[in-house]
Write a structure and sequence with these properties.
It is built from 14 helices and 26 strands. By secondary structure, it is an alpha/beta fold.
């Protein structure tokens, strides 16, 4: 029988936040704990600044610099907030009860051998569990590809790159095997895939050329995108600029190309003309698509009449989960008219925190969940623009300016992108750490040394 945690210690309503991503962490930072007892539940005990995750794969930025410990934020609320490092595996929407599983015994590879279950109750629940990679049912992806969603993924890529380069340095390796090991394939032409390809180019051009010039000239980068162009959400002028820069940097760009199968040492692609080609690779990074995590589907199964979209949780304009009373959801685990972007989840978190803070102060509000649509305006996403680093100390940006958009690309845009990242990091500690990483890289170069 799962143990039960008592968290109702006073008359305050208990607000449970699932996840430590952009949406949930923004709520945690802005919620007024004079009105709520806040409980954060997540298997990840830190907030990850995802815009800089690609740079961690090659040592431009160190991993801990973009990991903000969630207990630092929880601690600012004192005894009115607490954190459980656990996975939420089930929910009873009628009893308002959650089942949490924490790992009390792990194997050397991180697998959980003895999960311990705990039950907690909530008055209000915010589901911000985020999304995970989407393989679209492509054979072999989960078995052979690397992903780029979590810090563990970046570390795996870093290790895979190091191993491939070191193996290729042996004289006994054949030319064909060396070419395979030094072929880096990126699947997905969205911001993550483009930024990783750019960071990889910088590492090869600025660092590997100094350490192993005989290998650096043989490294090949291929980016595969199923759509006719990369970065489909960006202005066409910026897309053309990015594609031109990639060609100048000798990045093999294959658009309108789909992946049919990923094998242990090769990937089968379908070309625009319908023919199939098998490309040998040493490292393959899958940065295509996102889908909701398992808990979102668990919640969907509890209210199947209202939750009819298999992609995630259906929410209304007030972020309320349809069919589940007193439950809100935000970010990548939801299905709405907004794109799955970090700034969308962040704005949703700010809106929901402001709404929840406002409602208890209104004595006429007896039921926050049911009356929210009568007291506040619905959530409306306001784009702050889009930016992406494309390598060679260049970036692109599409920024709103009154009723128009400004587009820019080049070295100055890269400086603006870096400044924006430093500003958006969740603490002075993180900003200082990232700035130090960049200064150290400029002086001494990168390193991909791993245990």
């Amino acid at each position: 029988m799962p143990a039960r945690e008592s968290i109702h210690t006073d008359k305050k309503k208990t607000l449970v936040l699932l996840g430590t991503g952009w949406g949930s962490t923004t709520i945690l930072k802005n919620i007024d704990t004079r009105h709520y007892k806040v409980v954060v539940v997540s298997p990840r005990n830190y907030f990850l600044f995802t815009p800089l995750l690609p740079s961690c794969t090659v040592g431009t930025t160190e991993s801990r610099s973009i990991m903000e410990p969630i207990r630092h934020i929880v601690g600012r609320h004192g005894k009115d907030a607490r954190f459980y490092e656990a996975q939420c595996t089930d929910i009873d929407v009628g009893k308002k009860e959650l089942v949490l599983e924490r790992c009390v015994d792990q194997t050397d590879d991180g697998a959980c051998q003895a999960p311990a279950a705990t039950r907690i109750n909530y008055d209000y629940l915010v589901v911000g569990v985020g999304g995970t990679y989407n393989t679209f049912g492509t054979p072999g992806v989960e078995k052979y590809a690397c992903f780029l969603k979590e810090m563990g993924d970046a570390s795996k890529i870093r290790r895979r790159l190091k191993d491939a380069i070191e193996r290729a340095s042996f004289d006994s390796v054949s030319d064909a095997e060396r070419d395979r090991l030094l072929h880096m394939v990126v699947v997905g032409g969205g911001p993550t895939g483009v930024e990783f390809a750019g960071e990889l180019h910088d590492f090869l051009n600025e660092d590997l050329k100094r350490w192993m010039p005989e290998l650096a000239s043989k490294v090949k980068i291929t980016l595969i995108e199923a759509l006719p162009r990369v970065l489909p959400s960006f202005d066409k002028r910026l897309v053309d600029y990015t594609q031109d820069m990639f060609r100048k940097n000798s990045i093999d760009l294959r658009t309108a190309t789909t992946v049919k199968e990923v094998r242990e040492n090769s990937v089968v692609i379908c070309n625009p003309d319908g023919t199939e080609t098998e490309l040998p690779y040493g490292t393959l990074v899958w940065a295509a698509g996102v889908r909701a995590r398992q808990f979102a589907h668990t919640l969907r199964s509890k209210v199947p009449e209202e939750q009819t979209n298999s992609r995630g949780l259906i929410i209304d304009d007030y972020l309320r989960v349809k069919g589940a009373r007193d439950v809100w959801a935000l970010g990548d685990c939801t299905v709405s008219k907004n794109a799955p972007l970090a700034q969308v989840a962040s704005q949703q978190g700010k809106w929901l925190a402001k709404t929840l803070n406002r409602m208890p102060s209104d004595a006429s509000v007896a039921d926050v969940y049911l009356q929210v649509d009568k007291r506040v305006k619905p959530f409306v996403y306001s784009s702050n623009g889009s930016m992406a680093y494309i390598g060679g100390e260049k970036a692109i940006a599409e920024l709103p300016f009154f009723c128009h958009h400004i587009t820019a690309g080049g070295p100055l845009t890269s400086l603006f992108w870096k400044s924006y990242c430093l500003w958006e990091l969740f603490s002075i500690r993180s900003s200082a750490s990232v700035a130090t990483d960049w200064f150290r890289r400029a002086l001494f170069g990168r390193t991909i040394s791993v245990d």
